[in-house]
Amino acid sequence: MELGLIGLGRMGGNMRERIRRAGHTVIGYDRNPDLADVDSLPELVDKLQAPRVVWVMVPAGEPTRATVEELSDLLSPGDVVVDGGNSRWTDDEKHAEALAAKGIGFVDCGVSGGVWGLENGYALMYGGTDEDVAKVQPVFDALKPEGEFGSVHAGKVGAGHFAKMVHNGIEYAMMQAFAEGWELLEAVDSVTDVREVFRSWREGTVIRSWLLDLAVNALDEDEHLGGLRGYAQDSGEGRWTVEAAIDHAVPLPAITASLFARFASRQEDSPSMKMIAALRNQFGGHAVTAVSDHKGADAPGADVTPPAV
């Protein structure tokens, strides 16, 4: 089949290549002319035979909204737009409604696989009507991993991105657990080879996983992660997961804690920890570390003790 693909960055470019390897025609557009097959969205649409399928793979939010709006003026009844970015499911519902008014179908698709997807395949979670999904199915089949699993029609419009959002929330919690376990192992004197402990877990344990494999890869590159700053960004899905949990009164303590841990990572000097230190000093006389010395409590002048009462 033919596919129009908008957004040819690291992920979109690899998806184009994997779809082409499966024997399909992909016409790609990107703002970077070195990556694009055509010079504009109108040219992309003109080169596709009706009924057209156009896959949008651009950043969530305004870039996706603007692209879908432009496509709504270029496509014809019976065509289908697929949003394969990390859009919020509530945006999907709005896009589907606006496109339906012009007879254009809409499918939302959560895509997981990152830079490994070209060779390993992409896990796909998609939402939409059976009719619209059927028009995209050959592309889904080309992108998914080999075998029985890795692709699911999750439900109606919005279900694909909602499922991907929950997937990413679980991912947050799993990564946080690995990170905390690694930090504890590094903190004790009795464990002399933390990297090999992690490597040993790759077989025969209940926590073996691709994330564990990637953790070992990272430790092979930098055994104690000394070259990295302890800062972790969040792309939005973790926040949306927690917000959805609040809306539906579903307790998510692990996922919520992992999201807040990322926020804590951005604080070079945690304000809340200052208050905790001050309170411990007030009620228990516990030593606090002065701002003038943040290299360690053993340095001269680092400990500030309460006055005698």
Automatic annotation (TrEMBL):
- Write out the entry's keywords from A to Z: Gluconate utilization, Oxidoreductase
What family does this chain come from, according to its entry?
A: Belongs to the 6-phosphogluconate dehydrogenase family.
Species of provenance:
Streptomyces thermolineatus
Q: Does the keyword Oxidoreductase apply?
A: yes
Q: Which gene encodes it?
A: gnd
PANTHER family, sorted: 6-PHOSPHOGLUCONATE DEHYDROGENASE (PTHR11811)
* InterPro entries the record matches: 6-PGluconate_DH-like_C_sf (IPR008927), 6DGDH_YqeC (IPR004849), 6PGD_dom2 (IPR013328), 6PGDH_C (IPR006114), 6PGDH_NADP-bd (IPR006115), NAD(P)-bd_dom_sf (IPR036291), Pgluconate_DH (IPR006183)
Q: Which Pfam families match?
A: 6PGD, NAD_binding_2
| Protein name listed in UniProt | Decarboxylating 6-phosphogluconate dehydrogenase
Per the database record, which ranges form the 6-phosphogluconate dehydrogenase C-terminal domain?
A: 160-305
